[in-house]
Amino acid sequence: MAKIISVGNISMGGTGKTPMVIKLGRFFIEIGFRVAVISRGYKGRVGYGLNLISDGESILMQPPLAADEPFLIATKLNKAFVVTCKDRKAAYNFSLEKFNPQVVILDDAFQHRRIQRDLDIVLLDYNNPISTGFIFPFGYLREFPSALKRADIILFTKTPEGVENIPVSMEKYIFNKPIFYSSVKVEGIFYKGEPVDKKLKFFAFSGIANNKSFFQMLENQSIQVVGSAGFRDHHSYSEGDFKKLKKILKSSHADLFVTTEKDFVKLSSEMKDMTSILKIDTSIRNEDLFFNCILNKIN
Fold this sequence. Notes:
Layout: E1 3-8, H1 17-30, E2 35-39, E3 51-55, H2 68-76, E4 81-84, H3 88-99, E5 103-107, E6 119-125, E7 153-157, E8 179-191, E9 194-195, E10 201-206, H4 211-219, E11 224-230, H5 239-252, E12 256-260, H6 261-264, H7 269-272, E13 275-284, H8 287-298
Parallel strand pairs: 1-5, 1-6, 2-4, 2-5, 6-7, 7-8, 10-11, 10-12, 12-13
Antiparallel strand pairs: 3-4, 8-9, 8-13
């Protein structure tokens, strides 16, 4: 039977689950495992039925039909079998039958407990791990911090450089668990696969859980950002959005747009020709120990 690994969180988003799923999938593929990734497919226009995004050889569905995150995962993990479905158990059974994976990664599944998993990895934003401590709609949590007792591994993301200690607010919730720390590693800004000329002027836009963090990353890249526009997380861009953005680009005298990889996959061909990408990766401290811990737990 396949080993099942869940990557999730207890907050409403913005902890870096997608980059972590990609990193985890890449690790298992590189050591020779057959990998399937299962996602709910939030905001994909194809709906929440059973949908095959990639068969491990070809990408079969693109945005706007496919949701942005599973499509991005499929483009980054071209040997992985990527399925979306609201019913994670149905997606799991389908994956077993069609692909026979050795490792199944459940994207954003900490709260979806119908599937018995071998490992639960929970991501927490180091700078704001539990926000106000209240559950939505009174706060930004999906469940109370006491739920962390179900986690097998805790990974703090967006950890400040040089810091490797549990935030004081989390000390009473986390004990006797492996704890790791990661930060966002910026690989650079690319246009059509090549590093951009930093003398150019850029207009930034994004539709992610924390647009401000994206804009701050751009500021740290020593480029000229002449303006920015933020949309809601998982925003589906319309022709009207593209028209407005193109007008803003012209009036701002910017040379190119710059956006996230997750947003880029949802753009029209014309917009992609006008847009550069900020590429990021997850840098895990003691990375070898982190993956050894995963292997030991699933074995």
